[in-house]
Amino acid sequence: MRNTQYIWLGISVMCGILWVFLGQSWLFLNIFPGLLVGPGLNLEEYLQTGSSPSFTILWFSCLVALFIWLYVTTTSRPRNGDEVRQMQPRWWLAATLLVVLGWLYQLLFTVFIWQVRGQSPTNVSGMNYFPIPPAGWLLLMVFVIIDVILLFWLPTLLASPKTFRLVVPGAVRLMGGR
Amino acid sequence: MQLFAIGVGGSGAKCLEALTHLHACGLLKDTNGNPVRLGTFLVEPDQESTLLTRAETAIERYSKMHASLNKKTTTFARGELRHYGTWSPLSSSSGAIRLDQIFSRPVLRTQAAGLASLFDCLFPPEEQSADLVVGFRGRPPIGAAVMSRVSLASEAQTGQWQQLLGDVKAATGGGETTIIHLFGSVFGGTGAAGVPTLGQMLKNWLRDEKLLSVRVNASLLLPYFDFEGQGEEDTGVHAEARNFQLNTDAALQHLCARGQSCFDHVYLIGSDIKARYGFSIGGRSQENAAHLVELLAALGARHGLQPAAETGYAYVISRAKQNQITWTDIPDNEVVGVGLARGARFAVAWLNNFSLELDRAQTMPMLKFLSGAPWSRQFFQPNGQDNEFQGGRPSIRNVDELNLKAAIDAYSETLLQWFYQLSANTGSGFSQEIFSPDLLRRNSSHENDLAMVVRGSARPTRDSHSDTVESIKVRIDDLPKEQLTSRGVAGLADTLWDQAY
């Protein structure tokens, strides 16, 4: 990897951390509270016990996927462009898996975990899940996609090494013409 | 500086093939480090000779590639080459193809009976009636008789000799250092007869023309191969390995007595361990693979480029180990080794990888190709439009670029085949620590590993794990624009040439 790629990798990982642990929660609290709050839902409590753990695990998953990607691309010795391009469907597979996992994490921490425990996360009896309205679910799903873009696409775009430099979707248009 | 190389006979042609490849590898330079201008000329009565065709192919392919590059490169294939063609000593015999036709016996008998008897005494009937279109059949006396009838003064009035000698005159008149170097074996027929005779004729012609600054050198090949079998009864007069030593002794005696009047310097190269070739009378069946001795003979011409103050008349060479040749046995191996290693690694990387990549680029959109080949954006425009230049970068589908690629492919294949034969054809009980022959083959497997192409001390000191075509691609991708002297296929080949070692 080039020195500049290491720097970009560091910057993008730092940005990801700031986004996931600060920026995103701030947006939920200050910009989108109306979309997320359902009947009987305490937003701050939801962000602490539901949203934050699910996005933290998504962040960790993206970090693992990123390092697996960097390891595979750094250690492989492709003979030609076709072998390099073979990594593109794998990248899409990883990105799709991360998005699906991200949605599952939301479902897990918002609904499933409470159902399994048989507890109610709210003060409303019998409601053993966080009551997120449909627009809130949509917002969470969009944020999962944004997270995968920030935490996986961006660092792989900026730091894919050697001949894999332009294999990440969009890399040719964004970085190939220089 | 101009070097005029004349290959006489089959072995001489093989030496010119080797010299052409040395020139391509940038190893023929003057004292200022500029590539010499090389002129090549072949002398061979056997116009069907495979060895002749092979030398002509190498020369023609290099010339075509050099012309197609159109001086766009800074290091790759910079040396100019002009081929003056192939001349047959029989061409001045008015269609006669047998000795008794060239020296008409009926005329001899009627006009000089004594000479006719001498002719019969010197040449037995089977030699007199032997068809010479396949060469002088390993018999120097036949060749000497034919060659002695050639008048260089009259040949200089027409055809290829006129062009060659005209350029010798022009170069010398223009103040350029000019060297004529002859190549040929002294143990066969054509070379043994032709090289000393032509050397003497050239010296006389230069003296008559007052071109005394022109040096005439020669690389003389001593026996270095044997035949697997022998000719049949109906083969007629033919070269026989048992005569090689006899022919050599006679040639060396001639050289001792009159050599200085033929050549300024001679390089004597042979091998005690012989390569084995299948028997052939000549023509298309003669498929002797390239040999290290021919490379050493060509390096004699390289040595001859040194200033004239170099003393000594005859140069010989020996190796350190009885059964092995290594880079340290090659003269000036630190420079020659790097040049040849670069050539071999370039040919492997180009033919077995880059050329295949360019072929693949024709089958998909440029943006898709670029995603797997970031290095290509340095030389070809990223949007892939035909016949459109962007930042000096042509389209990867531009017809002129594809024609240049075909020319580089063709020459690289010839070069790679020569390297392969050179390293594989050592003779039994003899090995080389120079190249890995198995890796010097053209294949479509996108060869990536370059670490073992060159062996021994000329191998690059780079870590073998990272000595790959992929690492070259990464280095090319990282190069700043200012370091790229040209774009397109020429720029790619030039950069690969730089990065190959």
The rounded distance between the terminal residues' Cα atoms of chain A is 18 Å
Order of helices and strands of chain B: EHEHEHHHHHHHEHEEHEEHEEHHHEHH
Structure class of chain B? alpha/beta
- Number of helices, where a helix is a run of at least 4 consecutive DSSP H or I residues of chain A: 7
The quaternary structure here is heterodimer
Taking the alpha carbons of the first and last residues of chain B, their distance comes to: 27 Å
Q: Which fold does the CATH topology of the largest domain in chain B refer to?
A: Rossmann fold
Per the principal axes of the C-alpha atoms, what is the gross shape of chain B?
elongated
Which architecture of the largest domain in chain B does the CATH hierarchy give at level 2?
3-Layer(aba) Sandwich
SS strand fraction of chain A: under 5%
**Poorly predicted regions of chain A:** none
Chain pair with largest interface: A-B, 22 and 26 residues
How much strand content do the residues of chain B show? 5-15%
Number of helices of chain B: 17
Stretches of chain B where pLDDT is under 50 for at least 5 consecutive residues are none
Overview of the structural elements:
Chain A is an all-alpha fold and 178 residues long. Helix content of chain A is 74%, strand content 0%. Chain A has seven helices and no strands. Chain B is 45% helix and 11% strand. In chain B, helix 7 packs parallel to helix 10. The longest helix of chain B is centred in the C-terminal third of the chain and has 29 residues, at 333-361. Classes of the chains: A mainly alpha (178), B alpha/beta (501).
List key phrases describing it.
heterodimer, A: mainly alpha, B: 501 residues, alpha/beta, Rossmann fold, two-stranded parallel sheet, 17 helices
Give the structure's gist in a few sentences:
The complex is a heterodimer of chains A (178) and B (501). Chain A is mostly helical and 178 residues long.
